Amino acid sequence: MSDTPKLNNAPYYIKEDVCIGCGTCESVCPNSAVSINADSGSGAYKIDADKCKDCDACVEQCPVTAIWELESNKTE
Ligand code: SF4
Ligand code: SF4
Questions:
Q1: How far is the CA of 76 from the centre of ligand 1 (A)?
Q2: Whose CA is nearest to atom 1 of ligand 2?
């Protein structure tokens, strides 16, 4: 894993088909940005991009690597 500098304004999203609904991300998020995705029907969670402060806590704790950075927010 390279030491890529963190990008500003780069919220994350949860891959529905990977998330196992364990709730860890919700419990570690300091900004209450994570909640169950009621639309998914699979028990997956989702991240509210407006609340996400890009702290990385959920990304580090997710046991199945379901949380990814939004590609559209990356600046080259
Ligand atoms: S990156 Fe931080 S603020 Fe954003 S959803 Fe994950 S735990 Fe919450
Ligand atoms: S920690 Fe990962 S697997 Fe668990 S609910 Fe969050 S995104 Fe889904």
A1: 22
A2: 62
Residues of the domain holding 41: 12-70
Provide the domain count of the chain.
1
Residue with tokens 């919220």: 11
With cut-offs at 50, 70 and 90, classify the pLDDT of residue 4: very low
Say how many Å lie between the CA of residue 4 and the centre of ligand 2: 23
Interval 10-67: pLDDT, tens: 589 999 999 999 999 999 999 999 999 998 888 999 999 889 999 999 999 999 999 9
The token duo for 10 is: 């780069």
Distance CA 19, CA 26 (A): 12
